[in-house]
Amino acid sequence: MIDKYLISTCLFIIDEFNDRFKGISKEKTKEIADTEFTEADLVVRLGYPFKQMANFNMQGTDRDIVVKQKDFIIEVKYLRNFNSYSESSKKKNKTYRSNKTIWEDAFEKDYSWLCNEIKNGKKGNRAFVIGWFNAVNSFSELMQLGESRGCMPEINKERIQLFPFLKYNPQTNKTKDITYAYNRDFKEYSIHIEGHNYEVNCMFLGNSEDIFHFAIYF
Questions:
Q1: 193 is in which domain, residue-wise?
Q2: Given Cys at both, which of 66, 84, 176, 199 links 55, Cβ 3.0 to 4.6 Å?
Q3: Is the pLDDT of residue 98 over 70?
Q4: How many domains does the chain divide into?
Q5: DSSP code of residue 24
């Protein structure tokens, strides 16, 4: 049930950004994504259709969007890059925005919360939404999908199974070769919760021409 509200809202947001960023270069879009747009901006947009029914908690102490009248709770994560202060950047006296949020904070913590909520009978009333600008060459530049850190680690198979909208080259098995399977857009996929007879559903929204992408877990 909660997915019906979120799908339509996400599609409106994608349309908004397609219009707003029309004619803007990918480099400029990336700069805005990393330095101007925030997770709070995304939370407010996702909660807007609920109007006065929604409570927003964006201080890290509670869930992002709570709609008590419908028993809805939504966790939101906005993916972007942060400044890198590596030795190579220091030597060049340049700052690169290449760092990403660690796996636990970017995905694992909220996904585990959703799994626990589903196991407790709240499927259809809980959701975890991740959103990001389509301004990088690979999703792996925003999400830690490798077995280790570094520029070209091997893919962590357990992690990538949680993103059914991604594909990769099994011959190389490198995160740099991860791409979007755009033919899986707007389709519902099931992810088994290990050790339990429950599933998380996932839907990816976005195509190669869209400025913004979403993945909804519910």
A1: 2-217
A2: 66
A3: no
A4: 1
A5: -
Mention every residue, 6+ apart, whose C-beta is less than 8 A from residue 195: none
Q: Which amino acid is at 16?
A: E
Residue 180: helix, strand or coil by DSSP?
strand
Phi then psi for residue 129, to 5 deg, are -120, 130
- Min mean pLDDT across 95-99, 112-116, 195-199 is at 95-99
Residue 5 vs residues 105, 188, 202: alpha-carbon distances, Å:
25, 15, 15
DSSP symbol at 162 = T
Cα 117 from Cα 77, distance rounded (Å):
17
pTM of the model: 0.91
Residue 143: closest CA among 192, 98, 106, 183 = 106
Q: What distance in Å separates the CA atoms of residue 126 and residue 74, rounded to the nearest whole number? A: 6
Predicted confidence (pLDDT) per residue in 4-22, tens digit: 999 999 999 999 999 999 9
Tokens of 107: 């995905």
SS3 content of the chain, % helix, strand, coil (to 5): 40, 25, 35
